[in-house]
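During the first year of the project, the team set up a workflow for recording each protein of interest as an amino acid sequence followed immediately by a discrete structure-token representation. This format lets reviewers and collaborators read both layers of information side by side without switching files. As required by the reporting guidelines, we include two representative entries from the current panel. The first entry is reproduced here exactly as it appears in our internal archive.
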Amino acid sequence: MRYFDAHSHVQFPQYDEDRDAVLSAMRDAEIGALIVGTDSGYSKGAVDLADGKTLFAAVGLHPNDKPQEGYDPAYYEALAADSRVVAIGECGLDYFRPEDPEAEKERQKSVFQQHIELALRHDKPLMIHARPSKGTMDAYLDVIEMVKGTGVRGNMHFYVGDVETTKRFLELGFTFSFTAVLTFAREYDDVVKYLPIESILTETDAPYIAPASRRGQRNDPLAIPEIVAKIAEIRGEDEDTVREAVLANAIRVFAL
């Protein structure tokens, strides 16, 4: 592998017509990926696609995609035991909808707590989805309160926190993955510059968030080289040095 996409959803139906072609193109480009589950079906789909060589899986229940499904401890326990599963999630807290009642936050915290415990039992990192309410860092701060002191490891997926919040996650030893948003938005440059390179991962969140070169189209892990190039540009560092570093980070974080 030369590149690694730390958060993708190539098991989603957006790839049903050309998934084999996408995976073949990834192999040709030497791009590995973590295929991330968001519910029971998509978690099983991630495991089924993983080969344990360049494609790996994360299993979990997204905080607000399917609240009616509920968290099935035995189901996720069985999936987590598979050697192709290298992370637990995506899981976490999503407070973006201001109309959600307080009870919804408590439901999310209860489910997230079960993911924390699952990750600890299997000694695997969390893949955390945290989305604060507008103008705040509330979901991030609640994640910090829930994980501190537990010893759990984790990566902050699609990270949009400020520098002060970033400092607190760094104290926990967490990593941060960035998407192609960096190719068309400047809001996150300060955090990308602030972070030690050892704490940065690259991700696409495919099929979402295509880079500037493909705005409005379906995304895929082939966008990772553009994200690496943009991180290097923002940090003023050599692109190949950044590529090697973030790949090494993924290998370390996910024990690939």
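The second entry, processed by the same pipeline in the following quarter, appears below.
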Amino acid sequence: MIFDHLSNISLYKNLSPDISAGLTYLHQLSPDIAPGTYQLTPRVKAIVSEYETKVKNEVGFEAHRKNIDIQYLLKGEERIACMPIEKLTETEPYSEEKDAAFYAAEGVAAQTMTIGGGYFAIFFPQDGHMPQLSVDEPKVVKKVVVKVAVG
């Protein structure tokens, strides 16, 4: 997992060309972009959505096998809880179609971060993450999730 500010994206340019392309896209993105899916390269796409954050995310933690998530808010802020999947209990087995398995944290406290205001988070396949959590109270946000193909 990586948590940082977009002003530091040069630190990640050698991580992978695909992650670099996703971060560069976010850095240049207008907050006025319409919700939808945007194919950036054959291995990278951006999904723009608007929704209301939640006090509790009922589906729990998620993790992906085929994609790395770069999560960034264009409007508002949200908390994301995160924890290595080896410390979580699987509640819904991996689905190829959704590219996700779902998990619960039993008896362990997750770490949380707040994204928004130029901060982003990158979640790798081993990173369980629970997005869409409200910071103070539920509010409407505009978010971009860049999906970067693994391998």
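For the second entry, the following points were noted during internal review. The domain at 2-149 is CATH 2.60.120.370 (Jelly Rolls). The chain has one domain: 2-149. Both points are flagged for discussion at the upcoming steering committee meeting.
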